[in-house]
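The following block was generated as part of the benchmark described in Methods. Ligand: zinc ion.
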Amino acid sequence: MQIISHLLVSPNVTRVACPKNSTPLERPEVIVMHYTAGGDGRDSALYLADKATRASAHVVIARDGQVFQLVPFNVRAWHAGAGSLDGRTNVNAFSIGVELANSGRLVRRDDRWFAWYGQEIPRAEVHTARGADGVTYWHAYTPLQLRVAARVCRLLCERYGIRRLVGHSDITSRKQDPGPAFPWEAFRRAALVEDDGPVVPADAPVMGF
Ligand SMILES: [Zn+2]
């Protein structure tokens, strides 16, 4: 995978036109990770690219590792919404948005788990979190999806000099994504590049995914 003319190039990348976004993104400083709170990655990509949808993202990464690029990396996408990072608003003006296909928080009924839109999620894909609000259930990311996402983020860090990864929930209290199922520590290790070189060599196996 590589970035050519601000687009990912690889056999597993599909370009989805999203003409509603055209404002230049001059210097991305941060990558914002999201989940789609939806089902299939392709459907979410098409939904986000639709001109009637008041949201978008640069890329959507499906559970099978397929990547859909909607917006070139030198154009602003509408992923961050209202909110701020270190007191700076209009986060879309200095960030790249990466969406992971994932159903988000799940509802438990007896010993079955369901997405908010009703689809049953197999038990093997349920991530259990224990926090201040008790036990909650979340849709697990797939190892392949995380590996591809880390590869995309690593490329973005190298190409644009980005040194920071945050979650949507870090910029607005209204959002929970990417949620407790997202493995921040391992992901940052795999995706970020330090000033004196990569944290982990690009060809090293990614631990923990
Ligand atoms: Zn989000």
